[in-house]
Amino acid sequence: MQGCNLSCIYCHNPETQKECCLCGICLETCPAKALLITDNKIIYLKDLCQFCDKCLQVCPYFSSPKYFRITAWELSNYILKYNEFLNGITFSGGECTLQTPFIIEVSKQVKNNSPLTIFLDTNGYVHQSGWELICNHVDGLMVDLKAFNSKTHHYITGVDNSLILENIKYASRQGLLYEVRTVILKGINDSQEEINNISNFIKELNNYTLFKLIPFRPYGVKHPLKDTVYPDKNHFEKLFQMAKTVLGEGVKKPLDISL
Amino acid sequence: MEKIYRIIANTNLDFKDKRHLLCLEAENSLPYVEISQQAQTYLKEGTICDLFEGNAPYRPRYILPDFLLFMKQGSEYLNISPPKNLFEAINALLIIYRFVPSITSYPVYLGQIEELLEPFLSTVSPKEAENLLRFFLINIDRTLPDAFVHMNIGPADTKVSRLILSLEKELKHSIPNLSLKYSPETPDDLALQAIDTALVTGKPYFVNHQELVNDLGKDYAIASCYNTLLIGGGSHTLVRLNLKKVAEKSNDYSDFINHKLPEATSLLVEIINARAKFIVEKAKFFETSFLAKEGLINLSKFTSMAGFFGLYEAVKQLTDLNMGKDGEAEKYALDITSHARDLMDSYTGLYCEGYCNKIGFHAQSGIDTDIGVTAGVRIKYGEEPLLYEQVNLEGKLHPYFNAGISDIYTFDPTAKENPAGLLKIIKTAMKKGIRIFALTTTDSEFVRVTGYLVKKTDIEKYHRGELLREDTVKLGADSIRNNETLKRRVFGKS
């Protein structure tokens, strides 16, 4: 879902951060002429698109011409069409909780008509009352914890992490905290102390939440960080094993780590 | 004679390839089994294709011996006593496999393996059992180098099937082909182990056990390349009809349904019956084979198979509709298939007692030389709709085919992160009527060609001109090029 309330330096999908302001810069770079602006709207012609992603690269406003509007009714019908092939659906972004009323509406319609579960992939930076509302309508949450150290968190995201930590604790008490995720950035949040702190924080919460360590990859990143060397395999493996000594089998990493 | 010399002097063939081709040349020096002029014409122009089985067939194409009976009674011909432990059981199987004929000369069916070996598992330690099964699988891969060699496991959960799955994942062999009979009684964690193995090796197939039991009874098995046949029986022959070519002969849809399809199927039946008759009455296979004498096969469990392919192009030719894209195409696809099945069922299949004297109805999944015509009743490669729509359409077509039908579903490598999601898809596909579900990923070391597996590295070796142990690598390499196998839609890719 389009739009985000954070602007993390390593953001892998920077084109999902903001809404389109119709500047038209991407129109000029599109080699397939698959973009146009009419009636104060940007139109993306998917049939012509060559999927080169140049439009995303050139957008100076961290947006994209490719997102579109859909009603809760349309989306839930689309999901229900595939109901029998699915175990559940996950809302992601951007930051999906910025559109909480929409998610609740889709969730109601899907749950009334199928056994599907609803999960959110979120940064957890939501006011307490909004977070409680969300927790009433979903079956599970995957929450990013970009750093445990407050200063480091501020450096990466621009905000303090105390609200996020509180929300993680609340979700844990509700039995909804499926997974906590941390992207490992070389020289920023890759100290043993940092990973140890997160692991112990999760361990104290409950006995069911998974901790997923994800190595930073430069793909899609616009920040100068894209030019840095990403964490080396041995160091990442060391952090992974360290988390394992705290959390045992509750630690995960991407299956294919091509560092 | 010139042709025979060319085989003998061909440096791209090794000894066993030459022997196989020379046998075929000897057979083809005889005239074709007795068929009408019109049937000959259909064969010559390729509307009907006998898959180069040979002019004077002297053994059934597919044989599925009752290996369970063999384990109980041993074999006088092979001088084997009933095995008493796992060593003897595996040795007995490895011996008899070399004596089961088929169109390729390699056995196309290795048995319902856990049924054969589980009773002996307690005769050795768990470590020994694992080592013996590893040795068994390595022996099969090396001595039966043909990817149509096919082993069955499931639907029940057994130690042997779990071992086979974990060893297959470890060994990464293209041989044997492997099927898991899947039913609601198959526990999820066995199915998940099978998916885990399939994500590495492209096997096993998932077979819709309930549907096939309803059609064939519980004594069925999967042999060669998606063929569903009776244990203790088999199929004399497989002759296929190119629906695209029949459509091209037709003036319009009604001419196709009312005249050209009936005419083509009558000729198909004529050829199939003539071939079966020759095997039984002239070559007297069942009077000379020890398998028949010792009761390991029985003519009363045999059938013949009629293969159909090119439905996609037939629908396109006759209605200008695209299966998988145009909703209305489904109506025609089903209409053609049900007409073909009814027509075939209106004839008596000679020596087809195993299938109530009807010829088995089979969706033929293509051969290396097919160009511009789609396998079986599949959607043209590269033109597949979303998985949901593909399974919905194919689920309606599969139930017509009692002698084998399948499709291969290719997933993005990220599917490896979510085996439970794949299991959900497989369960739903079965519910929708899919009979055989093969899955693979784009990054797999294997390519599933029509129905058998070929290693990508072996294909490269073949293109470099190296002589290879497996005869199926050549077939695979040519199929991939001609059938555009690698153009298939990848599911789960954003």
Gist of the model:
The complex is a heterodimer of chains A (259) and B (494). By secondary structure, chain A is an alpha/beta fold.
- What is the structural class of chain B? alpha/beta
| Strand elements of chain B, count | 15
Q: How much helix, percentage-wise, in residues of chain B?
A: 40-55%
Arithmetic mean of pLDDT of chain A: 93
| Oligomeric description of these chains | heterodimer
What is the N-to-C succession of helices and strands of chain A?
HEEHHEHEHEHHEHEHE
| CATH class type of the largest domain in chain A | Alpha Beta
Q: For the largest beta sheet of chain B, what order do the strands appear in spatially?
A: 3-4-5-12-11-15
- Shape assignment of chain A: globular
Number of helices of chain A: 9
How many structural domains of chain A? 2
From the alpha carbons, calculate the radius of gyration of chain B and give it in angstroms: 22 Å
Strand content of chain A: 15-25%
Span between termini of chain B: 57 Å
CATH topology of the largest domain in chain A: TIM Barrel
What does this structure look like?
Chain A: GO terms for molecular function: 4 iron, 4 sulfur cluster binding; metal ion binding; oxidoreductase activity. The complex is a heterodimer of chains A (259) and B (494). Chain A is built from nine helices and eight strands. Chain A is of the alpha/beta class and 259 residues long. Chain A folds into two domains: 21-58, 2-Layer Sandwich (Alpha-Beta Plaits), CATH 3.30.70; 72-252, TIM Barrel. In chain A, the strands form two sheets. In chain A, strands 3-4-5-6-7-8 form a six-stranded parallel sheet. In chain A, strands 1-2 form a two-stranded antiparallel ribbon. In chain A, helix 3 (72-81) runs parallel beside helix 4, helix 5 (128-135) packs parallel to helix 7 (162-173) and helix 8 (192-205) packs parallel to helix 9 (233-247). Chain A is globular, with a radius of gyration of 19 Å. Chain B is of the alpha/beta class and 494 residues long. Chain B has helices spanning 2-9, 15-28, 37-45, 67-73, 86-97, 113-117, 126-143, 159-171, 188-201, 209-216, 243-249, 253-282, 285-288, 290-293, 311-319, 329-345, 387-397, 419-431, 456-463, 472-482; strands at residues 48-49, 62-64, 150-153, 177-182, 205-208, 220-223, 227-230, 233-242, 302-309, 360-363, 407-411, 436-441, 446-449, 452-455, 490-491. Chain B has a domain at 2-30. Chain B is 45% helix and 14% strand. Classes of the chains: A alpha/beta (259), B alpha/beta (494).
